[in-house]
Amino acid sequence: MSNSSATIANVAQHVQYISTLDVALPFIQRSGDRVTASVTEIIKAVLNAYTYRKALGEENANSVTWLQGYIVCVILGSGGASTVSLLRGEALSILYKDDFWIINGLAYCSIFSNRYIFQVLQLLFQRFTVLHHICQFIVDVSRGYAIVRLGVDGGSKLTKSAIMLRESVVGQIVCGTLIGCASGLWVELLGLLQPTWTFSMPKSFLALSYTVKISMMTTLLYLLLLKPFYSEDLSVAHTISALTFAALLLYFKLKSDSNTQKPIGRIDIPSEKAKELAKLKKRK
Questions:
Q1: Rounded to an integer, what distance in angstroms lies between the CA atom of residue 221 and that of residue 47?
Q2: 23 - beta bridge partners?
């Protein structure tokens, strides 16, 4: 193995270690053993609950029922994997994960039952925007791994449908793309970020969002990497694809934020008044 390949493999090993790092949940046991949870999943659950409350606004946060809000957090946390499981005719993986329900329940209860917790998070993310970007990047790396491992490879426990999909490039592209963006599609389809849900055409069907595009690009990149890296170490292709997915999402998010933010002291002037001012300047 060349030095560059060894370096990539070493990076892949460290990234995978961080993405799979687990911690024991306090006071929660199952069959005498502590229930563990992924650090990435904990960050993801907190970010989803925070984003949901921020989208609702303070005036609507208290009008949402507990069951309604909890369902939204579950969809935000598992929409991609659950959609692909339904397409393949498989049981939803979240049904076997007690830690998923516990983490999302605790995150939702903490942020929606106490507005001070939400305000502290909001203050932290506003004062230290890099912290918010780091947390989101960690979550997006995990999503990138899910695209290639679950969407394209079919998961660790291969079912008959997952094995059959390995022979279909179109099926792999569809499943990989949906893993990365299906949560957003469900949000747009059902209007989940509103206090009252309404069925409507997803905006991404009319104009593809950058999340959909990046999810598809990541899937295609992984399929291209399969042949040269499969004989050496598949984890290298996994890591390259996952990091590419997270990096592209971060880039477009920063670009979108910079386009929406106004420079300090700038005042937008209507075009007609701007033209009149320009004429006055020319006369002077």
A1: 27
A2: 37
Compute the mean pLDDT over every residue in the chain, rounded to the nearest whole number.
82
Q: Give the residue extent of every domain in the chain.
A: 17-259
* Residue positions counted in the chain: 284
3-state SS assignment for residue 258: helix
> How far apart are alpha carbons 87 and 164 in whole angstroms?
13
Q: Do residues 144 and 218 lie in contact, with contact meaning Cβ atoms separated by under 8 Å?
A: yes
In sequence order, which ranges of 36-114 are alpha helices (DSSP H)? 39-56, 58-61, 66-88, 98-113
Question: What phi, psi does 274 have (nearest 5°)?
Answer: -65, -40
pLDDT digits (tens, 9 = 90+) for 255-276: 887 766 544 333 443 444 445 5
Q: Which residue has the tokens 């369902």?
A: 71
Q: State pLDDT tens for residues 143-179.
A: 999 999 888 888 766 666 667 777 788 989 999 999 9
